[in-house]
Amino acid sequence: MTGGPARLAPPILGAAELALLSRLHLVHRRPRRGLYPGQRRSPRSARSPEFADFRPYSTGDDLRQVDWRAFARFERLMLRLSVAEEESALNVVVDASESMTLGTPSKWAAARRLAGAVAVLGLGAMDRVAVGLLRPAGPCTPHLRRGAGAGRVLAFLAEVDPAGTAGPDDLARLRWLRPGLTVVISDFLVEQSWAPALAGLRAGRQEPLLWQVLAPEEEVPVLSGDVELRDVESDRRRELTVTPRLIQDYLRALAAHRDQLRRQAAGADGRFLHTASADGLESSMLAALRAGVVRRG
Amino acid sequence: MQLLAPAAAVALLGIPAILALYVLKVRRPRSEAANLMLWSDHVVDRQADAPWQRLRPSLLLFVQLAVAAALALALMRPGLPGHAAVAKTTVVMIDGSPSMLATDVAPSRFAAAVTRAGRLARQLGRGRQMAVIVVGDHARLLTPPTSDPAVIASALDRARPSGQPARLDEAISLANAVLAGRPGGSVLLLGDGHARPSPAGPTPRLGAPLVFERIGRSGDNAGVATLARTPGGEVFVEVANRGRRPRNLNVEMRADGRLVDVLPLGLGPGASAERVWPRLPAGTGVVEARLSPGDDFALDDSAWLITEAPARRRAVLVTPGNGFVRRALELRADLDVTVVEPAQYRPGPFDLYVFDRFVPPGPMPHPALLVAPPEGSGPLPAGPPVDPGPVLPANPREPLLEHVSLRDVHVQQASSLPVPRDWHTVIAAANGPLLVVHQGEPRLAQLGFDVHRSDLPLRPAFPVLVHNLVSALLPGRFESQVFALGAPVPVVTEPGVTSVEVTGPDGGRQRLSPAVGSTTVTDTTRPGLYTVRQKGPVGVRTSRFVVQLQDPSQSTIAPGPRPAVPAAARAPGRAQRGVLELWPWLALAALVGLTVEWMVYLRG
């Protein structure tokens, strides 16, 4: 991240994209306890018109919560419980490693747009939203609320320059994550397993959502013949003779890698989805709709 | 094995070049990736940190080396001794007989022979030469010995079948002349075995070994053998099956191109059937009998008959009395003969004048035949009588003596005749000419002896000679006649004709020059009806003639054995073996190798 002069770059999210996001809601699969009222269902019961459950009366309970109609019917004291709606935490972790600069359009542009969009969705639902980078002790925003939160998040993302490396170990070392929904946006192209880091998230009462962004050239390689491939992060090189058969093997390996990520996410009660950097926000949100990550408002 | 193009061995340099490509480090374009993990299991690893790398065996390398070797060998044109005679000097004889137009070998036997000759020309090695002769009724040298395949190909483009039975005599003489002074020659005859030495006369000996390459497979053929008009006005058809399998045929009878009747016929192998067809529509000009279904030899599947009566001609015979000449003239069906004595002769509009021992006063009318004009008169003033001596033809190929035998003909007394340059002698004797004919206009013929002083009128040759003379003198000699395929058709034009145009059965037109009163249609290689239009001072005269296969032996198209050609004593005993080129197979192997290489490459 650099604090250079303001650049004449297009905004991360335009007016049309913000209008699109206003019609969507981010879906939390599990209710989480929050500190303040919000729009997320809480595991706690509370006084509200929305019925949640009955439970038998026990000594010390508030007699005002007794359901006298149930008592008349069953001749037993029953307490009527209601749903509490509280705020939740949304952690958005963006991979800003060197490899995210690859692709046409670059993966970083798409990842930054998605991170902003997810943050806007969370802020719209009165969530506490923080955005940070997948780096050791990477910078992040504080957990923000609706209001000026969106502007600060987008300003934070606009000033990030991808560099260095990133991996599962970096995710496990992040300390600013709060219990809630943790969205990790990355290409996830590392040899190490993400399972330990995801288990750590689960232990921290976080629901992981892995959102893979790949470039079109990574989805379907356009290489042919003799080439020398260079890993932009490790600077390792490998000489290849790319044949149609090799391309097919690459596609099979990519599918297997995604299956592994999906299983690892499911093992941590999380989800996995993938989009391409060439996809617009609308296409990406459609993929998220199909994956159940967002829903229409 | 021998190499026809050893200089192409330079192409073998491709093999070390391929090896060098494998040994040299490949300079690869660089590309960046987020991670190599997805490629790791599928790398064709040729990492090298030096300009050279160790040669590693791979299927791709072996296939590429094999393809390069096959291509280089193909370019060197290796060959094995084959069965074709491609000697130091090879005379290729192509049988041009009509049976070579059979299509049992696509597109035809003749075309296959030409293709074979062209292939041999392209296979000529260094120092080898080839000459090409087409054998028809006459032999035709298409190209003298040359080693240039382009010249031979150009000559082969001009090769045409003759339409006449092929006779080897001339071809053998021609081949001997070509090979004279060229040791190590051989003769290759490409044909179906129908080219034979002439049965008449001794066959010249061939001065080089002969290799016969048979072309043709099938002998199945049925044809119209005869199509004629009976005296009763009916049409007589004879159909012959020359093949070895029975045929069920329909004879389509067409009148002026319209199908009017179908005669079904069933013919066993080698059998023939005759039919008399009485239903000829009145006014029909041309009858065609066509066989269906067709077969491999189309030339004899159709026959034509011109049924319209030929135009009648008027002739006057002025004679003090000559029964021989009168009877001979009256044998022609198209001639109305008027016989008058010299005293009663008055010039009139006759088509032919015959003056026997008489010459009319004043200008000589023409066309005219003068028989023994009085001494000192006639177009060629006759000299004093002499004993002519033995009688012989002036030219054995004289058309006017066709079917005329002068053997044992005697002439007791004849007038001596001068022969100016524009006259030519037809019958000669030891002491001077006996029959002379004027070339061109006016058409005149003069016989130098009184037929009563000779035994010629007592022989069958006399009416034939008179017939030929009348045909030559009268215009329209060809009208309504049937001529053999490929034979030249003499056209005696009408007096004063300015243009002659001949339209063939395929619609092709030929313009002929009528300058000397007669001309010849030479392109008669297509069977069918030919139309002649003569434009003259009295309008346009249209007449027709037919060209078709007339020799029944030519309808037997089964490939025959090697012709028995006598060899000269000094001819070498064995024909030099030719070269069977292997480059097409090597090229095919290279193509297969390239396909395998591509599949190996795709497989990774």
Features:
A: about 300 residues, 3-stranded antiparallel β-sheet, 9 helices, about 25% strand, B: about 600 residues, alpha/beta, 8 helices
What would you say this structure looks like, in words?
- The complex is a heterodimer of chains A (about 300) and B (about 600).
- Chain A is of the alpha/beta class and about 300 residues long.
- Chain A has nine helices and twelve strands.
- Chain A has helices at about 15-20, 70-75, 105-125, 150-160, 170, 195-205, 215-220, 245-265, 280-290, and strands spanning about 25, 35-45, 50-55, 80-85, 90-95, 130-135, 180-185, 205-215, 225-230, 235-240, 270-275, 295.
- In chain A, the strands form four sheets. In chain A, strands 6-5-7-8-11 form a five-stranded parallel β-sheet, sandwiched between helices. Chain A has a three-stranded antiparallel β-sheet with strand order 2-4-3, covered by helices on one side.
- Chain A is elongated, with a radius of gyration of 23 Å.
- The two termini of chain A are about 35 Å apart.
- In chain B, about 40% of the residues are buried.
- Chain B has an eight-stranded mixed β-sheet with strand order 17-16-18-19-25-24-23-21, with helices on one face. In chain B, strands 6-5-4-7-8 form a five-stranded mixed β-sheet, with helices on both faces. A five-stranded mixed β-sheet of chain B has the order 26-32-31-28-29, with no helix packed on it.
- In chain B, strand 9 (about 220-230) and strand 10 (about 235-240) form a beta hairpin.
- Chain B is α/β, with parallel strands linked by helices.
- Residues about 45-50 of chain B have low confidence and may be disordered.
- The chains are: A alpha/beta (about 300), B alpha/beta (about 600).
